[in-house]
Amino acid sequence: VWIFGYGSLVWRPGFEFTSRKVGFIRGYSRRFWQGDTFHRGSEKMASAGTASPNTLLFDFQACTWGVAYEVRGEQIAASLEYLNMREAVLGGYDTKLVKFHPQEKDAEEPILALVYIATPQNPSYLGPASEEDIAAQIIVSSGCAGHNIEYLLRLADFMRYFCPQAEDKHLFSIEEALISILPCLYYTEESLEET
Length: 195
Description:
Order of helices and strands: EEEHEEHEEHHH
CATH superfamily: Gamma-glutamyl cyclotransferase-like
Radius of gyration: 17 Å
Strand order of the largest sheet: 1-3-2-4-5
Helix content: 25-40%
Strand content: 25-35%
Largest sheet: 5 strands, mixed, barrel
Shape: globular
């Protein structure tokens, strides 16, 4: 079984796997339109829109980059039980089968993979918002899995270092908005040397 992750699963799968591949799925855009009152948000922040983790929006012409994990044997039941709790029960995500295209040049056919997606019918689905509003939500949101700033920055770093050829305007626009709100988070090597 292959499991495709496009958010925190790219750096913190939380389950044992046999192999992993960087690649993409077609027909979906990554969006920070899903609320969270557990992993990266809290119940007391619900009125402010909670955190803004990822979901996928059906978009015929788009593709979303991430990581697919292969699980075998005893790993299958354990990983699916873990992900059902993490993504479906606590996150409200539904599961779908998608075609995953590995980044490797010698890859043959696409691989069928399981993916977790939040739909507009999900009670935690927030819907569209400006990148500035999403960045403002991210700054004030944290939960048991950590601060939402970490979520955004780790995802942006993954895209930058593992998928440099890919475009994700939504993600990088939110990162840019976050930087403009909190410039003290970023230091260049020159500024560190001067201090």
